[in-house]
Each structure stands twice: as C-alpha cells, then as structure tokens.
Amino acid sequence: MNEFIASIKSATASLHTQLEQSEISNVIMSQLVTEKAYAEYLSRIQCMHEDIEKHTFPIIHTIIKDTAQRTKSTAIAADLDQLKYASAVNKTFLDAAHSPDLNFNLGLMYVTEGSVLGGQVILKNIKKQLGEDIASRFLNVYGQQTGHLWRSFLIQLSEYQSTLSEKEKMTIIDGAKYGFERVYSILM
Q1: Crossing angle for the helix pair 146-161 and 3-20, nearest 10 degrees?
Q2: What gap in Å lies between CA 142 and CA 150, rounded to an integer?
Q3: Alpha-carbon distances of 135 from 35, 97, 180, rounded to whole Å
Q4: Which of 36, 127, 141, 146 has the most beta carbons within 10 angstroms of its beta carbon?
Q5: Are 117 and 146 in contact (CB under 8 A)?
Q6: Is there a contact between 183 and 143 (Cβ–Cβ < 8 Å)?
Q7: Residue 151 has pLDDT above 70, yes or no
Q8: What's the mean pLDDT in 88-95?
Q9: Could you list the residue ranges forming a coiled coil in this record (predicted)?
Q10: Running DSSP on this structure, what letter comes out for residue 145?
Q11: Looking at residue 70, what DSSP letter applies?
C-alpha cells in the first residue's frame, strides 16, 4: 500500500470505526435487518452521493478521469423505487464546512469510493437476511469492477498526491476526515 494511502487510512481509522459502530450500521449488518431499515439506510446515504456527484465530481474530474463511471445516486433511487420507499429524510451531506478545494474534495472521494467496498460486505448480509431478489443495485454498483475501480481510484490519487506539498496532502486527509464525519451525521 502506498505510504500516502496508508496515512489517510491511519488518520481516518477511528472515524471509520465510529461509523461502522453506528446504530444503523449495526442494524443493517445484523440478522434482524428489515426491508424498512435497509431502505432507511439507502435513503440516508442518497444525499451523500447526490451531493458528491453534483458538487465534487466537477471539481475532481481532471484528476479522477473516470468520474462518469462512478455515479451511484441513480442506483440508490432505483433501489428505493423497487422497495417502494418514499424517503422522509431531509438531510444534506455537504454543509458550510465543505471546501471547494480540489484536494479537500479528493479526500471526500476517498470516503465515497471506499464505501463501495463496504457495500460488498453489506450486500452479503442483506441478501442473506432479505433474500437474493432484494433491491441491491447500489450495494453492487460496480459489480465485477469493484476491486478494479477502487485500485484505479487509488492509483490516480497516488499519482496526483506525489506532486503535492505536505500541506496540500493534509488537505486531502482533512477532506477524508470531513467525509467520514458527515457520513456519520447523516446516519444518525
């Protein structure tokens, strides 16, 4: 693992653990998960992906060349439609602390792209508990390409960060920390 990627992982480890231990994360990973709880989870993270696609993608597309392949909000909307779940969640992912800085937004992207890997773990439990036919476009949004797209993202990020000062690299880490904090806030 690249030293910089390892430093992001280390700097965000406690936030990642906090997120995994949130009530909704525990519910969707348990034997007691219900279709309603799963739909609620999807509805809460929908705002994250909508905001990232609308605000972050235009900022980072010169560095992460394949952002068009990385959309997730339409998959979430299709899953919610299939589940016949009308979201009552009125949350915003990006808040006043969000920065339009390129490096900060690359940190945000680290969180959202990493969530696709976590989605694979969630997918196994959701299908086991709720059945193979459960709406799961989002959890398997990249399908067989999940590992490839994650590695591609890390390569693009690593190549770019090698041109940066330590302060600029810290801005990427700050964006990742912000991303984890915001995900936690929308899941609460």
Answers
A1: 130
A2: 10
A3: 10, 34, 25
A4: 141
A5: yes
A6: no
A7: yes
A8: 82
A9: none
A10: G
A11: G
Domain boundaries along the sequence of the chain: 3-187
Largest CA distance in the chain: 49
Q: Looking at the whole model, is its pTM more than 0.85? A: yes
**∠157-164-161 over CA atoms, to 5°?**
15
Note the pLDDT tens digit of each residue in 24-39: 999 999 999 999 999 9
Residue 88, pLDDT > 80, answer no
**How far is C-alpha 122 from the geometric centre of its chain's CA atoms?**
13
Long-range contact pairs involving 51-55 (C-beta distance under 8 Å, separation at least 24): 51/92, 51/93, 51/94, 52/93, 52/108, 52/109, 52/112, 55/94, 55/98, 55/100, 55/105
Question: Length of the chain in residues, anyone?
Answer: 188
Rounded CA separation 140/168 (Å): 33
> What span, in angstroms and rounded, lies between the C-alpha atoms of 64 and 114?
14
* DSSP reduced 3-state for 163: coil
Query: Token pair 């600029």 is at which residue?
Result: 168
One-letter amino acid for residue 118 of the chain: G
Structure tokens at 176: 């990742």
User: Who contacts 17 (Cβ-Cβ below 8 Å, separation ≥6)?
Assistant: none
| Nearest-angstrom CA–CA distance, 85 and 134 | 13
User: Is the CATH code 3.90.550.10 the one for domain 3-187?
Assistant: no
